[in-house]
Amino acid sequence: MGDWQFFALLLSNGILIGLMYSLIALGFVLVYKATDAINFAQGEFVMIAGFVVVGFLISYGAPLWLSLVAALLAMIAFGFGLERAMLRKLIGRPIIAVVMATIGLAAVLRGLGPLLWGADTKPLVLPIGDEPILLEPLFIPPIQLVGATVSLLFLGLFGWFFLKSRKGIAMRAVADSQQVAMAMGINVERYFALAWAMTGVVSALGGVIWGNMLGVDVHLSLVGLKVFPVVILGGLDSIPGAIVGGLIVGVVENVAAGYIDPFVGGGTKDFAPYVVMIIALMVRPYGIFGKQIIERV
Hints:
Layout lengths: L2 H33 L6 H18 L4 H24 L7 H23 L15 E3 L2 E3 L1 H23 L1 H11 L1 H6 L4 H27 L8 H12 L4 H21 L1 H4 L3 H16 L14
Helix pairs in contact: 1-5, 1-6, 1-8, 1-9, 1-10, 2-3, 2-4, 2-8, 3-8, 5-6, 5-8, 6-8, 9-10, 9-12, 10-12
């Protein structure tokens, strides 16, 4: 394989993986757009969704379609329930309160998943072939192609929702100022709950796709950490930023692994995105498409 063919292979795989990262990053964006806070439990949401699917498949012998529907409904209900039981009480409080609540929630979910479903890695098998699609010089795994397609579809759908729908515009207003939104007659609690329910939908999709690729266990939650540079690069409040950030991270980690790993023995893809994130924070701390906030003192 020639140099340009090797680079094209790394680039194509990086783009597909990057789009799958963008889907998970959308969960960060949804919560931030509605609450102006970062959900540090996003990776754990993905893990729980994966556990629900394999639980129905293995424990109850349910068909795949029913398991997927069950996971989708369970994560929507989880999002609504979480908002009602814990996060609604934090409306109007300092943002750090919501951030610390999600960090605590992440720790609880990391322990709860293995406790309920076991600590062993469970396969999540989808009716997708393992034979890569050959388009010289590209070798495209089918699950990556499906994952990237699903990601683009839902990224476009949620982008339209925030830009064109009344509910999406109201959610953006809530993020700008919860107090002002309340004064204008917007039901902040309703849109707070809607944001977490939509995050549940994204988590269910991510849990199925990444669960198929990695297997379902507690380590699936680490996808959330892998995605964090994506939202920092693209901008916490930007859906186009989630797409661009995902593409950058996917390509950087694949190219770094392909060209640097042979000299250092591996592991480059685990830290290369964070190096890019740190550089981006020094140059453009609000992200490529993020909203620049200027405070007068």
